Amino acid sequence: MLTGDLYRFQDLLSPAEAATVTRVREFLDSQVVPIANDCWARAEFPFQLVKGFAELDIAGARHSNLLSGWLALEMARADASMATFYGVHAGLAMGSIETCGSPEQRERWLPAMRTFDTIGAFALTEPTGGSDVAAGLRTTARRDGDTWILNGRKRWIGNATFADLIVVWARDLDDNQVKGFVVDKDTPGFTATKIENKIALRTVQNADITFDDCAVAESHRLANARTFKDTSKVLRATRSGVAWEAAGVMLAAYEIALDYAKEREQFGRPIGKFQLVQDLLVRMLGNVTGALGMCVRLAQLQDAGEFKDEHSALAKAYVTTRMREVVGWARELLAGNGIVLDYNIGRFVADAEALYSYEGTREINTMIVGRAVTGLSAFV
Question: What's the whole-model pTM score?
Answer without folding.
Answer: 0.94
